[in-house]
Amino acid sequence: MSATTGIGTLTVRPLDPLKDAELLHSWVTHPKAAYWMMQDAQLQDVEREYMRIAAHEHHDAYIGLHEGRPAFLMEKYDPRYVELVGLYDPEPGDVGMHFLVAPTDRPIHGFTRAVITAVMDELFADPRTRRVVVEPDVSNKAVHALNEAVGFVAEREIDKPEKRALLSFCTRDQFLAARGVAI
Fold first, then answer.
1. For 125, how many CA atoms within 13 A lie in the half-sphere containing its CB?
2. How many C-beta atoms surround the C-beta of residue 91 within 10 A?
3. Whole-angstrom Cα distance, residue 125 to residue 123?
4. Which of 4, 19, 87, 119 has its CA 20 to 30 A from that of 63?
5. What is the dihedral of CA 132, 119, 101, 143, to 10 degrees?
């Protein structure tokens, strides 16, 4: 992926669980990342979690770059095998997604919206992706608004082992419509 936006160029690269662990640790333990549920994680915990993801056949993690510098985390997963097993009936072409914008002392207006848009562009670049699935914490109102802004429609609340989540879906057409692209 390489997307040039009003805030600059966003790209992604595969995450390296060992080389990126220290950076990730600083992101996921930051107070801003409370919904990531790794606030008390040690560096080794982060390494272990991302080694597990790297080894998983149906889960991938990426470091997002803004103008070549690490700025966000993106995960994609197959909900038939990860995160949502038994919690809904997956359809062919469903892809699950998580994203986390790195904490910064110099926020850029519109950055998070540009990131989620670039993440969705990346997911829909694969012609097999028919629908993106997310399951954020029900109390994370900020991410619900972002999800809605890029075309997600909430379906229902579900109980996951770690949280009560808002199961939401976004089709390619819903994403394009939210961006103002004629379908």
1. 11
2. 12
3. 5
4. 87
5. -40
